[in-house]
Amino acid sequence: MKKKKVEQLLNYNGEPVPEGYVMVPTVPDDLDIKCNVRNKKCVISLPIPGTAMSTRAVLRAVPESQAAIYRKQYNSWQNDQLRHFPQAHTVSSDAAKDAYGIERSTDITPESIAVGKDNALKAAQRLIDEAPSLATGMYFKLTGLSGKDFMEAMHVEKSRSAKIQENLKDIFTKMIFEGAETVEFKANHTRNDAYYLGVLKEHSEELLDTILSFFE
Q: Which pTM was predicted?
């Protein structure tokens, strides 16, 4: 897998990110943005998982030890915004934007790409290391398998197939927004672990490359 160099990001105030700090999404405030945000590239949009909508965020540099707390705060705020719309998948983007600043995901910046790429790769690598069934499920989903084809590729019954996909979506989303290292989950050992490890041994680099391709 080819590693690509990511240029150093400037903080919201235009200053370099200090050593030991990382950029995380924080809850936006219009007055704060107007008065304090010097680097407008740090005002980004982040997708709401499972919808075609997004919310604004301000990227800020925080101590790496506190990054998970800030990510969790933003994720909770984003989920709260989504709860204002019982039919989030069908609400008009204009109504959502006017009421809560939620809009369709169109604002893609180098900063949002860098943050998303880093979180996604760390999350995927942790699943590979700790939850082979979920990582293998992610690989098969990204290759386009669904329904009966996914079930057969995973060597499981229908109910187990549905559970794997549900857990994968929930855990991977939380890891991206709250930090790959902080999310707790139970990685159950299964009779198919040897098979899953074999799939990952052959395809883990392909899986990570596929994830990277979403940020090109």
A: 0.53
